[in-house]
Amino acid sequence: MSEAARKYDLYGHDFKRDPHPTFAAMRRDDPIYQQPGLNGTTPIWFVTRYADVDAMLRDKRFVRDAALALPPERIPAGSPLDRRLGQHMLNADGADHRRLRGLVSQAFTPKRVADLRPRAQAIADALLDPVVGRGEMDLITDFSFPLPTTVILELLGVPIADRDRFRAWGNALLEPPMTPEAQAETVRQLTQFTDYLQALFEERRRHPRGDMISALVAADQAGDRLSEDELCSTVVLLIVAGHETTVNLIANAVLALSRHPDRRDALAADPTLMPAAVEEFLRYDGSVERALNRWAAEDVVWGGQLIRRGDPVILILSSANRDAERFERPDALELDRSPNPHLGFGKGLHYCLGSPLARLETDVALTTLLARLPNLRLAVPEEELRYRFLPGFRGLEALPVRWDVP
Question: Which pTM does this prediction carry?
Answer without folding.
Answer: 0.94
